[in-house]
Design brief:
single chain; about 230 residues; Neuraminidase; four-stranded antiparallel sheet
Amino acid sequence: MKGITKMIQLSRQVPHPARHKLQQRPTGPMRAKMRRQLTLYLLAFSFALSATSNVLAQDPTFTTIDFPGATFTNALGINPRGDIVGFYTLSGTTHGFLRSGGQFTSIDFPGATLTNAMGINPRGDIVGVYTSAGVTHGYLLSVGQFSTIDFPGAASTVARGINPSGDIVGVYTLSGTTHGFLLSGGQLTSIDFPGATLTNALGISPRGDIVGQYISAGVSHGFLLSR
């Protein structure tokens, strides 16, 4: 009996392994690992919330653009600031327009019977086309001043696009054939896709790459002209 009593007393004094394990506190390395895991979970959760917010914020929104009182409005160009150019018809006459900061400004080349704004660069320089005395000309509007753009000998010239450096592309007609052009550093250069019966330069990137349209064997194609 004394031996049995002694064993019972010893068993009460020895802690149960499982009970001892539950009472242990995390060691330094274990606590650091738990903190890292918690940080990763929080970062992942924050990223998921941010991605969801961005998706919601990036839903496309249409906005109608109508020049006040116009019967027809067409937006053709926009720059990085969100300034928009185009043309509108009012009382049978076509005018260009600039929409900047929510405000419309009419664009009319002096003495022209038609003005159309087609492109705008980050500086706010605008290019387009106007008609005067039945002849079609391109123009540049920079710092409030108009300049006419005419390819030498052409029956008509239209300026379609302008990049941040002020390089201008467009189209001209000479002897019944339509060609593209580049105006850079005051020099005009003709652009003709090999074998095409028509070439039209429509846009130019900041580094001078040009895109447009050409027709060959009666089929219309797009083109990229890399500098």
